[in-house]
Amino acid sequence: MDESLSQAHRNWWLVQFADGPLAQAIDDPVGVIPVHFIAGCFGMLSAGIFARIDEFNDEVTRGQNGLLYGGGFSLLGKQLLAILAISAWSAFAILVLMVSLQKSPLGLRLTKYEELIGADLREHGLHGVGVNQYLIENKLTTE
């Protein structure tokens, strides 16, 4: 099997596993965590596992092989450190952003009523599937 197809197949199974029962408790309706975080981490770790020295461009792995090609844990450790650093920075940046949004007049969440009728109607004035069945007695406001 072609190596790129094999990699794509592994990534597909990884995303399916990450979106399974373990992820059901997380509020992630569009699948951001399995697609961007889990697959991104796997892609970065794959370089530390599967990389080979590129004889034409030394800048790719800087003369290091991955774990499966006799490079030891050096490149894999660097990739893991990069994942931890990026995750820490992202968590900090998101925390600052979410706390700022929560304290702003905009807020972070919709009210229960707005959730029931749908964010499309509340945020954009558009109705989605099934919204025309609701009886809306009061005009929606940001209050």
From TrEMBL:
<protein>
    <recommendedName>
        <fullName>Ammonium transporter AmtB-like domain-containing protein</fullName>
    </recommendedName>
</protein>
<feature type="transmembrane region" description="Helical">
    <location>
        <begin position="80"/>
        <end position="101"/>
    </location>
</feature>
<dbReference type="GO" id="GO:0008519">
    <property type="term" value="F:ammonium channel activity"/>
</dbReference>
<dbReference type="GO" id="GO:0097272">
    <property type="term" value="P:ammonium homeostasis"/>
</dbReference>
<dbReference type="InterPro" id="IPR029020">
    <property type="entry name" value="Ammonium/urea_transptr"/>
</dbReference>
<dbReference type="InterPro" id="IPR024041">
    <property type="entry name" value="NH4_transpt_AmtB-like_dom"/>
</dbReference>
<keyword id="KW-1133">Transmembrane helix</keyword>
<dbReference type="GO" id="GO:0005886">
    <property type="term" value="C:plasma membrane"/>
</dbReference>
<keyword id="KW-0812">Transmembrane</keyword>
<keyword id="KW-0472">Membrane</keyword>
<feature type="domain" description="Ammonium transporter AmtB-like">
    <location>
        <begin position="26"/>
        <end position="126"/>
    </location>
</feature>
<dbReference type="Pfam" id="PF00909">
    <property type="entry name" value="Ammonium_transp"/>
</dbReference>
